Amino acid sequence: MGARRSPQAPLLPRPGLLLLGLMLLACPGGRTEVQISVPPLVEVLLGKQASIPCTHTVTGGKGYHLVEWFITDKNAEQRRVAFSEQGRREVDKNTEYTDRIFMDTDYSLVIKAADVSDERAFTCRVMAGVGGDAGGTAQLKVFDSPEAPEVKWNTRTLSVTGELASEVAECFSRNGNPMPNISWYKDDHLLEVPTERNTVLYMMTRTVREASGLHSVSSTLYLRPNKTDRDSRFYCQVAYWMPRGEKRIMDSESFHLTLHYYTENVQFSLDSPEVIKEGDDVRLLCRGDGNPPPEYVFTKMKAHDRFEDLGSNPNGLLVLQHVTKEDSGTYRCQVLDFDSPPEVELEKEVTIKVNYIDPLVLKPNKTVKVPLGGNIELDCSGSGSQTPTLLWRKGKQQVENSNTLTLNSLTYHMAGTYTCEASVPSIPGLRKDQSVRVIVEGKPEVERPLSPSHYYSTDQKVMLTCSALGHPEPQITWSVPGEPSTNSSGNRVTSRLSVEVTPELAESGVKCSAENQHGADEWTFRLETAPPTVSATAVPVDGGEGQGGSMVAVIAVCVCVLLLLLIVGFFYFMQRRGRLPCGGGEKRSLTPKEGNPDDTVVEMKTDKRNEQTGLLSPGGGGGGGTNEVRKGHREGALSTDVKQLESAGFCPAPLWMEPCRTGFSLPLVGRE
Q1: Would you call 324 exposed, middle or buried from its count of C-beta atoms within 10 A (0-12, 13-18, 19+)?
Q2: Which residues contact 342 (CB under 8 A, 6 or more apart)?
Q3: Model confidence, pTM
Q4: Dist CA 196 CA 183 (whole Å)
Q5: Taking a C-beta distance cutoff of 8 angstroms, is the pair 323, 331 a contact?
Q6: Would you give the distance in Å from CA 442 to the centre of its chain?
Q7: What's the pLDDT tens digit per position in 636-661?
């Protein structure tokens, strides 16, 4: 840290300094003491700015002050590179640091960009007054992390029966400082690898100092593998140091070894759920522990100890697609590995059972025709590896929970496809079904609409829809000419016709007739007018669906009438309360109050007829009635005109107009 009179950096006497020393010796009490502090170690990253502090204090005198920085070269000699004398800081010329350093205001030596070659000792010396001499040395350490480790491994097949260790992999760590260390790992466990050559495990390490001064390291791993290494994961790890004692590590990519060893064990198993049902894909997996993988031969046992050849493959997988009950039985896998010793068993067997349901038997089968109103009984039977549960469905709806379905008094809506479904509850997904189509025959039935068809005006076109049920398919005709569009679905036929409304057609209606070999049926569409709406365009009418537009029109008219009545009522109420003093049909009189002739009283007189009709007239004044304004006491009346009222401050205009005079109000008295 601090030292006085460092023996490694002796002072070089100068004439000026010698004269200064003699003068100070002549003055008693003029000796100076210097305390200096320089850190023993300074750490910096490669390429970064390095600052080496030189903290010092001078006591006991004032005067001459010199701070110098020295480096130690390869010959262990000191050379000055910078100095500060009496406040003047300079860098020495013709040194390797001339353009790379400067001295800070606190006398620290600053290296602009640290390099590996800067790893050396830097000495700071301070002289002040008589006897004031001290120095300190700092060691600069430059750090740089290496590149990511690179590993190259042996991709050839290594035999586990060899007697010597084989070269497994080589790991490289380049351009680091200080020198990094390489270690080897197997399945995340550190391998204790010796450096001495042997027949089981060892490594060889080489180091190189690059031209930049950085270090590169390589390590080669030698190993005699065994069968347990076939699935092991190997990698190398590089450890290096950074400033403040921080240790960092980097792992290389991992690799596996390719080993050659014979088969010792064979496993043959079902690689699918244990419960197998018909239609499943079944996977049988055969595995031998030899490498390279051997060839696998599959067979199926037949009667009288005969086997059916199912082929061979190198992956040991046998797939049976969409199995049926005939696929039940015993299967054998044989491993072909001629390197295995004779005592190793290379054959294994597996037995599978396929659960199934036999095809269902329906009575009657496929299609049955029944007259309208008749009865029928549908029967279903089934069998399988286990007794199935039977039920009947029509579409998605369950209609019977047993094997027999009875249909009585058949209607057209009861016609359709009925499905018998068989399942085994203990085996999810095992099910089978069979369907029968029930056809109901009879005369047509025309569907009746719920309400008559509506139109807005004559000459308007409306769309009529007629639907009929029956079998055989009925033919639909209309009582008016046109080009109907017809479509059918099941036992239903639908016909649509666009007609133009005429007075005669509105009176007679439009007849729809349906007919087949069993009879006929008909329906007459009645046309009724609908209240007008904002847009009376043609609207398709389908049975009871033609009322939507007329209802909207009625509601709109009612709302408008109600709003009009509310407005009329509001103005009538305001007039009755005397809040509308300026109606055209009102009579007013100005009468001064008793005792105060200056007060003006306005009386409004409106006859009954004007009260009821005044608000509805165009002028809003009551249909031509006259207004009389009287002023005075009970003894008499004095006529006046509107100008006199305005001069008195009375405003003959309605309330919603601007007032004639601000702040003047008239008490209004209404008379019946």
Answers
A1: exposed
A2: none
A3: 0.46
A4: 15
A5: no
A6: 59
A7: 333 334 344 444 444 444 433 344 43
